[in-house]
Amino acid sequence: MNAKTQLQSRRLGVARTSVSDLTRMRMNAFTQHAILTNLLKMSSGNQNGNKVPPLNWQRHDPSERAYYTNVERLVEKYKNDVSWDNMLHGGKPMSVSKPSLGGNAALTEFSDLDKEEEVVSSLTTSEQSQEIWVDPEFDEEDRIRQMDEFPERATGAISSTSINQEQDIRKNSDMKRIRIIQDLMDPIIDEDGTAIQLTAGEVANFSSLMADTLIAAGFAESAEI
User: Fold this and answer.
1) From CA 65, how far away is CA 70, in angstroms rounded?
2) Helix 3-39 to helix 62-82 angle, to the nearest 10 degrees?
3) What residue ranges of the chain have pLDDT lower than 70?
4) Of 29, 81, 102, 219, which one is least surrounded by beta carbons within 10 A?
5) Cβ(73)–Cβ(36) under 8 Å?
């Protein structure tokens, strides 16, 4: 194969690629135009505010128009399958009412009414059974006597004074008395976050954990009375 043949073959390949790309882009453009035109079309046939300019079919091939028409049919089928107008504009489907044929009502209607009445009656019965039963023989004197026996239960809460006393007793039971036998160069931080400077000879009360720590470190000794 000489150089001229190779050049012609290369040009033919470039031409085929260009034709393929051009055809693909035209098909994509026709498809997008058909989809947008049909999706923006309202059920009355009018277009929305965003109008898509129509195509001038005198400038296109008849086969391209046939392709465009088939795409429009597929879009219309999709819109019918998904109820496009109701989904887009918030429409609600109309419920189909059965025509009345006159005459006596069917037996199924009476059976449905009986079931509804049974459900309502069972609900009211359960609500009545859940009500609190009050003893009629429980008079005011019995109530006062119960309040005298259990004053805390009558008031519904324990007084703050008793709570504070219990906390003080619990706190004092956890304290331990120690004597400092060696000066501390740096202050220590107690459980409340307060900095304390200790010197030899001082006697102080600390929590059991801190007191045991100072004794184990050799800075203090027990000074329990």
Assistant:
1) 9
2) 40
3) 1, 42-50, 89-115, 119-120, 123-140, 148-173
4) 102
5) no
Report pLDDT digits (tens) over 131-190.
555 565 666 677 777 776 665 554 544 555 555 665 555 555 678 888 888 887 778 877
Tokens representing residue 54 in the block: 């129509």
In the numeric block, which tokens belong to residue 171?
């706190």
**Host domain of residue 37:** 11-89
Count of the separate structural domains present in the chain: 2
| CATH number, position 191 | 3.40.5.50
Cα dist. 176→1, 187, 203 in Å? 109, 19, 11
Is 214 a domain residue? yes
Q: Are 201 and 177 in contact (CB under 8 A)?
A: no
Specify the pTM. Answer: 0.36
